[in-house]
Amino acid sequence: MIQWKRGSRREIANLSIWGTSYIHPRNPYIVALWSTTFPGYGHLLLHKYIRGFALIIWEIFINQSSHLNLAMVYSFTGHIEAAKHVLDVNYVYMYIPLYLFAIWDSYRTTVELNNLYQLIETEKPSVNAFTIKPLENNYLDKRNPFMAILWSATVPSVGQLYLNQIISAFFTLVVTVIFVHYSHFIEGIHYILQGNIPKSTAVMDKQWLLYMPSLYLFNIFETYMNVIENNKLFKTEQRLFLKRAYQTKNLKIKGNKVTGNANRSNF
Amino acid sequence: MQIVATFEHSIQLEMAISKMEQMGINDIFAIPMDNRPEQPRLFDTIHRSDGISLFSTGMILAVFFSVIGASRGFALNWGPIYWGLIGAGFGFIVGFCIDLFRQTRKKKRHREIRGKKTEVVLIIECKDSDGQEVEKILWEQLAVGVGKVH
Question: What keywords are annotated for this sequence in UniProt (chain A) (predicted)?
């Protein structure tokens, strides 16, 4: 049995009032693919929030400046000339390097963190299970993945709140409101529900609407993933605690005498 | 007497231990168990999470196809929202099938466990007179099973 050690070199998790961050093994291809849907999303999955938010803000700025989404709509609908015309040459070449960097960097980071996880796991670091501060508290507990999916499906950011990822929830909410405002997404749904498809199509903004699928589906996936890993962290912390505090060496199992035949019946 | 109880990992488990300690019972032994690996399922649940559910590829492909569907929707009769949703549904099903196919091709080495699992075994040494109270605490805190040895 691996012994409980205090003061290990690396930490595996950090629990604060702003949220819970932790390292756990992930599939680097899944992380890299989320980076292709929206630069920064791969980093958010790795709990590298500052990098993730920076890349997301950059993506929104550069996509708006280069009209990339609009060019995508024109390309997919076969209007190649319109796509060429609408792309801003000055900005689109700035788009490409960072787009590829986000994919490459999230892949590389995942591999490195997976390696580190293996090292950290053998060190058995202690995990803080509870924190309370004047304005907020946070603790490890089991949460329900279905609830995370359902709440995330209402408005992106609510799932993060369920997990007490305060900063992530705030950032996601701001981005969601901006996207809904400019894309007229909810207006579009409103007219669809009234059965007026042409009006719904006309009212929505092509450039902004293309952000919606990745925003909406990513947030469902992210919160789901975090609930699962959060529950695993809870379990790991409890196992370490039980092993440390409730494994005295003088335990003797009571009971009637076991006759020799009982164990041999299998042979 | 000795009482043996099995639990899943939960806050209730720690509450049970704490309540028994308040009764003055100090001989408590806990053994966290390793469980048999399971077959992956579509979603993980609150009590069961191995992280290899059949969800990841589906969600990414849902985004890809939803973007393409919504784009093309601007030129099609049903509009971007319906085509975006159709794209998302199509992408998710394709991704789900890919994951399912890859998982079923892996060797099935372990039989599936359904329902509640034993994740922690508690052994409690207490006076015979405390037995009933301890048992009540264990059941109240959602023990999976409880056994007694006199």
Answer: Membrane, Transmembrane, Transmembrane helix
